[in-house]
Give the backbone structure.
Amino acid sequence: MKVQILGTGCPKCKALAELAEKTLHENGFEFELEKVTDAFQIMKFSVMSTPALVINGKVKVSGRLPSPEEIIKFAKDAENE
């Protein structure tokens, strides 16, 4: 699965990247993590506030940090699509 963190590198963006990577790794998901910091690339996702979590091209949450449980649910849903 492809996981993207959208954000300019602010502390919350870095926290989301660390949280997503740790949560997915600890729960045995196969994933590729990409940090998207370019404003034009972020705008393509129609995200108005960062950080944002994108899984397989779909924005799952933006403007806040999701809980580890939410990340696991998003990942499971993406695997079943």
